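Priority: medium. Attachment 1 of 2:
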């Protein structure tokens, strides 16, 4: 199955619980105040994307690609980052809540967790 390529788009106030996002590769996209909670974004690719004020709680991340992705003010409860695609995995978190999320055996040495909560 071929992925849809989406570049330089801004998604604001999208409720992906009701209308799932298009499966594809997102590059240089911004997501502002979007709800991904309980959404399956497995096999999606996010490259140099930014997420601000988004809710990712309990989203499914199997083989999801995050490369040079930034998260600001996001709620990210119960995520399994250890299920993500490991190739080029790189992200940063600022003012995020990551309670009950796992990074088991994930290589994230350069990951920045600035003013973020992890329990």
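Attachment 2 of 2:
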């Amino acid at each position: 199955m071929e992925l849809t390529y989406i570049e330089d788009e801004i998604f604001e106030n999208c409720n992906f619980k009701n209308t799932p996002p298009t499966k594809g590769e997102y590059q240089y996209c911004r997501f502002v105040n979007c709800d991904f909670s309980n959404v399956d974004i497995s096999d999606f690719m996010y490259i140099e994307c930014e997420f601000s004020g988004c809710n990712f709680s309990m989203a499914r991340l199997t083989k999801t690609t995050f490369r040079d992705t930034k998260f600001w003010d996001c709620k990210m409860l119960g995520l399994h980052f250890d299920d993500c695609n490991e190739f080029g995995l790189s992200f940063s978190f600022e003012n995020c809540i990551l309670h009950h999320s796992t990074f088991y055996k994930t290589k994230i040495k350069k990951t920045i967790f600035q003013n973020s909560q992890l329990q």
